[in-house]
Amino acid sequence: MTDATTAPAPLTYAAAGVDTEAGDKAVELMKEAVRATHGPQVLGGVGGFAGLYDATALTRFRRPLLATSTDGVGTKVAIAQALDVHHTIGFDLVGMVIDDIVVVGAEPLFMTDYIATGRVVPERIADVVRGIAAACQVAGAALVGGETAEHPGLLAPDEYDVAGAATGVVEADELLGPERVRAGDVLVALASSGLHSNGYSLVRAVVRQAGWGLERHVDELGRTLGEELLEPTRVYAADCLALARRAGVAGLHAYSHVTGGGLAANVARILPAGLVAEVARGGWVLPPVFTLVQQLGQVPWTDLEGTLNLGVGMVAVVAPDAVDGVLAHAAEMGLPAWELGRVRDADPQTDVPGAPGFVAGTKGVAGGAVQLTGAYRTA
Question: Which pTM does this prediction carry?
């Protein structure tokens, strides 16, 4: 039996490291930003057990297909934490999640988020969610719910991770994808805003090995290294949907979101078996951050192109007679775009796995392939 004079003090949830009052304060700080994403389709407001979305609008579809995706931001959150800048990371989350459903032509409806942290700092959590809400507005989606979980002992007090999921809808006969792609189609590149949110384990390792600090000003970048590494992911959703509507399904056949695995691996996923996309590496000038990572870490080019987007964040597969219209409309929207390559029939004599620059069978998809040729151009 424990002696009363030596008995430990009673334990509370707060003493164990979980501050529910801090969580409530975070909700108060973020709820106006969340409400700003709500249209009349969102019911119940902020704070319910479940987010409610009125699906009546789906009755206008002849055969509505629901599309869903989930993802996180990855180790880019380590840059946000090191710089104590948290209001932009939400754009990375929305870009990774919502732009994955847009590739099939789906209009995003709503999104939810999840933040795990070692200690709830209300202002920090609110900054993260405000960023998610702002990006949802850009994408045209409602942020209908979320969760912040405090995990003391599992995560350090100032560590957090963020993830999310989104749902959208597309008319069945307007679905974009490999089934529409034909030999002769043209690849149109849509520029990335920078590194986006993939490959940061490699990038951080390069920076660490070089001994560079995030506060270091880099002339080639025109700003500090930290500012460059924290540049938010471009959210393509609204622009991609606008391009698809303008061109129609007869003109715009498929999208590829260039995320983990790089350009070739992700384009190969949206090509049917028997087709190859020819991409000349010299068709665009690499943004300086990619050249910097390569040179600073002496990263092999094959490794770099299999990890980072190299300046291309989204690729549209377009019918030949629709290319000029797509490029013109992208320019009207202020979205840098250019012709990236063409789709052709595979040649069984030369298009073989293991050939230099030949990429196929990625992400578990037994589809088409990409043939990269030439060398990259650097500024």
Answer: 0.91
Helix (H) or strand (E) holding 246: helix 237-247
φ, ψ at 318 (rounded to 5°): -125, 145
Look at the chain and report how many structural domains it folds into: 2
Alpha-carbon distance of 82 to 351, in angstroms, equals 45
Is residue 317 within 8 A of residue 367, CB to CB? The reply is no
Distances (CA, A) of 239 to 103, 119, 175: 12, 37, 17
DSSP run (H or E) holding 91: helix 89-102
Amino acid identity, position 85: V
Let me know: does 108 contact 241? Beta carbons within 8 Å: no
* Gap between the Cα atoms of 142 and 71, Å rounded: 17
340/262 Cα distance (integer angstroms): 15
Question: Are 223 and 329 found together in one domain?
Answer: yes
Q: What is the pLDDT of residues 316-370, one digit of tens each?
A: 999 999 999 999 999 999 999 999 999 999 998 888 888 899 999 777 777 899 9
In this structure, the answer to whether residues 239 and 370 fall within a common structural domain is yes
Position 285, amino acid? V
Would you say 198 and 306 are in contact if contact means Cβ atoms under 8 Å apart?
no
Q: CA-CA distance, 231 to 222, in Å (whole number)? A: 13
Per residue in 32-54, pLDDT (tens digit) is: 777 777 788 877 767 667 878 88
